[in-house]
């Protein structure tokens, strides 16, 4: 048996520094357009009041009556991955990677996505739009009652304490055998702890990311968090432990704003003047090559910096580096061959195996350890 989640370890953290501030335009500024495609059913709920004593009825989040993915959820997904890729400050304030504690000295993730501690605030260097579904999507014809989804239980130290607080971040396995509604684990005898949902079976979404005042390293980290190598995927939304939420993101357009004047007033007037406007949706192969070259340039800048940070030879290929975080991510972001073994241990299992430690990502992948079935 394999638990639905595991932990991605950290490695050498990237250096901290003061972010670019907003009183002037500097660094890189632009707009990236992305396409998001589902590979399994997904679900993200619209706001609702949960009824007492029975299963909640949850509808898919909508904007103008079309299924959509909230910008806040997209930002959270991308930030979590950026933290893992860069071994950024830990959400658990671990000894190895303490949280950032001043806007004057931030890790790359906090510089990009923002930082808040009391009145000490850095708003970040990007703004993500909601993702709106394109035509051709398919919602389930009937709502389904999911198997019970519990909240995280970090007080279960055998699973959480050593792994999460000292080593890394929690990720859910992709479950490639979940193809449609019939594959989703459902509950035949629901209680008030279950939820009835309206999953989206398939769909393609589009969203944009506006960025400003970024360095080449920060922009490279954003691009690595957005567009993953072939065979690696993001996980989004509700019911990840049950196999929902596998998505694939491509960058399909890029506008870059590069005011050339040294005069501050002229720079602001020129800010929305495009020095670059390219789209992968163009039939022109040269345009597509230009977009790919732009992406690879910034990805390479980050990869080279991270290699230096690890004490390894410079490379433009981040995922070729030998580091604990990237090695674990390559497993947790892939569609593993053993996904049909994934399920939550039940209440009785935890009673019988209260001290059973969670096998590591690497142990599970190489077959050396599993959780006992009973």
Please provide a written account of the structure.
With about 375 residues, the chain is of the alpha+beta class. It has one domain (about 5-345). It has helices at about 70-85, 110-115, 160-165, 215-225, 265-270, 285-310, 325-330, 345-350, 360-365, and strands at about 5-10, 30-40, 55-60, 60-65, 65-70, 115, 120, 125-130, 130-135, 140, 145, 170, 195, 200, 205-215, 235, 245-255, 275-280. Strands 2, 4, 5, 8, 9, 15, 16, 17 and 18 form a nine-stranded antiparallel sheet that branches. Strands 3-13-11 form a three-stranded mixed sheet, with no helix packed on it. Strands 1-12 form a two-stranded antiparallel ribbon. Strand 6 and strand 7 form a beta hairpin. The chain is globular, with a radius of gyration of 22 Å. It starts with a strand and ends in a 9-residue tail after the last helix.
